[in-house]
Every structure is written in structure tokens, then in C-alpha cells.
Amino acid sequence: MAKVKVIISDRQKAVEIPTGLRLLVRKVCTAALKEQGFLQDAEVNVTFVDDAQIHQYNLEFRNIDRSTDVLSFPMGEDGQWDINPETNMAMLGDIVISLEHAVAQAKEFDHSFEREVGYLTVHSMMHLLGYDHVNGGLQADEMRYHEEQVMEMLALRR
Fold first, then answer.
1. Is the pLDDT of residue 134 over 80?
2. Domains and CATH numbers, the chain
3. Paired strand residues for 91
4. If you ran DSSP here, which 8-state letter would residue 75 be given?
């Protein structure tokens, strides 16, 4: 298995991060790459924010004037990624998760906060790896299938 470096930043104060959440995010990133058969050493940046911050990012980068649960900023295209000269790892991109949104969605969907953050992480990882569900269809179905495979691998079932 290739090495995976997950750099996690907490830029919010709205939600106290439970013990083990950072480890879970790292496990999800690693499992997503394993499930996809990704063989390169890779690095991913994950940032926890609040709803106001993700609203600002959504407006700035997507021109959508509302908060959301997660944003993905892939750094690769067509299976090609830039290599970080310091680490010699493929730079997959950035994941931004609103922990406030994750708390609300965990309540809405009646599952744990950890499961919700796990799902948001795997969903975003699939975007970093080139999947897109926006137009629906077969690619959306394929993305969802791979997300569920990773969630099952980590026993983060519904």
C-alpha cells in the first residue's frame, strides 16, 4: 500500500472535535485510495470550518450564496496529479468540511457525527479522484457505489 499523508487543520470553534475524529478522517482517506486501487504515495489537506466559513468559500469558488456540508478542490485531472517536490507525493487536493453542517446532518439522518464526517470525507475523496455526481447518471451511481464500498470497509454503515 502506498503512503498517505493527511494534513488536518481546524479553523472553527463551533464544534468540539471528539477524540478519534482526526484518526477516522485519515482512515477514510486511506480506505478510499485503497478501494480505488490508487498506488501512488499521496497527500490530502482536510480543513474543518464552520457554516459561515464554508458559505464564504462556496460563494467565492462556486458562486453559490449558501453554506454547504463539504467542498472539494481537486488538484489533479484525468488521473494526473502534481507531485510535491518536498514529499514526492501526489497532491490530490483539499477537502473543506463544515462541522456545523455535519452535526445537523447527523441528527437529520439519525446517525452518528463520526459517520457523517466519514461519509463527507469519502464523498470528497471521490471528487478528488475525478468522480462527479452533479449531472447524475451513471457516474453519479458509480461514485455512490464506491462511497458505500469504503463506508462498508470501515464499518460506517447506515
1. no
2. 4-153 (3.40.390.30)
3. 43
4. -
Q: How far is CA 83 from the centre of its chain?
A: 20
**How far apart are the C-alpha atoms of 3 and 56, rounded to whole Å?**
33
Q: Considering the entire predicted model, what is its pTM?
A: 0.95
How far, rounded to the nearest angstrom, does the alpha carbon of residue 71 sit from its chain's CA centroid?
8
Predicted local confidence at residue 26, as pLDDT: 98
pLDDT above 90 for 71: yes
Tell me whether residue 48 is exposed, middle or buried, using C-beta atoms within 10 angstroms of its C-beta: 0 to 12, 13 to 18, 19 or more: buried
Cell of 144: 455512490
Q: 96 pairs with which residues across the strands?
A: 47, 71
- DSSP H helical ranges for 1-157: 21-35, 51-62, 99-108, 113-128, 137-153
CA distances from 62 to 23, 54, 57, 78, 98 (A): 29, 11, 8, 21, 16
What is each CA distance from 61 to 20, 33, 78, 124, in whole angstroms?
A: 30, 26, 21, 16
